[in-house]
Amino acid sequence: MRKVIIYICLLALPILTTSCYEDLGNYQYNDINEVSVNGIDSSYVAYQGENFKIKPELNFTLDQSGELEKYEYEWVLMNTGGLDTDREKVLSHEKDLDVELQVAPGKYDAHYKVFDKDTGVEFYWDFKVEVKSIVYEGWIVMSDVGGEARLDMASLIEDEYQVFPDVLSYIGSSLQLQGAPGLVYCYYYDPTLYGIYATSEGTGTTKIDPETFDWSEDLRLSYEAISNFPTNLNADKLYAKGGYSSFMIKDNNVYYYYRTYQVKYGAPINKVANEPNTFTASEFIAVEPSSSGHSILFDEDNKRFVRHLGANNLEVAVMPNNAKLFDYNIGMDLVYMSYSRYNNGEALAILNDGETFHIARMQQRVRNINQVYYEEISVPGFEQAENFAVQPDFGYLFFNIGTKVYEYDLSTKVAHEMLDMVGREITHMEFNSSSPVSSQLVVAVNDPTKPEGSTGSLEFYEIPAVNGQIVFDSKLEGFGKITGITYRSR
Q1: What is the pLDDT of residue 15?
Q2: InterPro entries given for it (predicted)?
Q3: Residues 333-346: pLDDT tens digits?
Q4: Domain covering 3-132 in this structure, CATH number
Q5: CA distance to 28, 227, 229, 278, per residue, from 264 (Å)
Q6: Please, which residues have CB within 8 angstroms of residue 205's CB and are 6 or more apart in sequence?
């Protein structure tokens, strides 16, 4: 921190240089009232929209009165890289700084000025301020509040999460979600642009600005499409893929986006080569994460697995001719399917033939797909199971039946009860690969006894090996009824 003293005074200039010479050595110097300060650090981290406080302690060399009104004060932020009109922002004229920080995120030079009204002398103290957005990183939660969509966020601030219900209103975003909640999802859809997508029935699917959460019309998902989609296009699901590419599911059709090749969402790709018609596609896709990898889709009309070949934006293909454990034309209904990093990359599918359930696993590495597992799953009440999730380290299948959470070991074919949320509702479970806790089970729980708008919570559990009892790690509260989550990473 640097202190600068500026003297403001008028000097009487002598008319004759000889008189100056004669007076040499006859001047009388008087001490001035100097100001020193404690309590201002050399640098600060502050958050946009939050209170920023500094309470300096002032000491005076000659003035012992302690009358602070004898001085004027000024706190200033300076953005040296900004426009002329934006380079200086006066925050306060009070002795102590206590303001809601309404400036753009960035790094600023700053100073504190104390002006002595008796002597006309100004004292400056320099310091640095880094302003961060409260939406810099953290869990973004889609909530249902009285049937209406609300976006909440648990922001990671100083290594701790702080929950902001209705974060769009809190941050002052111009986006207002209307109608029932839909998806919430994050991924890099462009090499330099990070997409945070939110959907509500009346608004459709749109991105929000990843730094400010503000909104404009050109952030709508329909701007990533070339077909005759409505402006308020409402996607059912989005799946990110490598190389800034993705799949969109809408009304049982699959669309493909690939920024690198300038491919936008266009005609449906749920059509097998040399077959005349599109098929009804399942909402589940096992997405191989590399840009050239083969992802697995499911044809609900013909009850078969099919695959998407790399960057093909026109169609899908039949599965490879390597069936050893089951026929890819499996003839069953698909209940659930996802990709996980278990075993260096696998697709897990749950199927039902009307009477029994089966699990099929397919090793899925770039362009290679191989069958590795096919067994019946026999768990009492499994027809009511929901919220499936695959643990990426051990391959355990998690699901809930009512209020109870189970861990199913595919090797022993035994389901172990892990939790019972008596009196509460489980609304979502997942292992989030984009978050810092990708191996932890995230359970969204709704407690109807709490006030509407704050009934939802996220609970995090460590998963030990060898079917050990899962261990509670932490909890975030204050959300609405949670319908979906995503992680805004950096």
Answers
A1: 36
A2: PKD-like
A3: 999 999 999 999 99
A4: 2.60.40.10
A5: 81, 9, 12, 19
A6: 182, 183, 197, 198, 199, 220, 221, 233, 234, 235, 238
CB-based burial, 298-329: b 16+ in 10 Å, e otherwise? bbbeeebbbbbebebbebbebbeeeeeebebe
Percent of the chain whose predicted confidence (pLDDT) is above 90 = 85
Average pLDDT rounded to a whole number, residues 19-40:
71
Q: What is the mean pLDDT of residues 304-316?
A: 95
Question: Rounded to an integer, what distance in angstroms lies between the CA atom of residue 146 and that of residue 214?
Answer: 24
| pLDDT at position 188 over 90 | yes
Domain boundaries, the chain: 3-132, 236-377
Cβ neighbours of residue 347 under 8 Å, at least 6 residues apart? 286, 296, 337, 338, 339, 361, 362, 364, 369
Q: What is the pLDDT of residues 78-114, one digit of tens each?
A: 987 655 556 799 999 999 999 999 888 889 999 999 9
Residue 260 vs residues 187, 196, 219, 383, 405: alpha-carbon distances, Å: 15, 19, 19, 42, 41
The pTM score is: 0.86
The residues, ordered by sequence, that sit 6+ positions from 357 with a Cβ below 8 Å of its Cβ are 335, 350, 351, 376, 377, 378, 382, 383
**Parallel, antiparallel, or unpaired: how do β-strands 43-47 and 121-132 relate?**
parallel
User: With 50 as the cut, is the pLDDT of residue 293 above it?
Assistant: yes
Give mean pLDDT, residues 326-334: 98
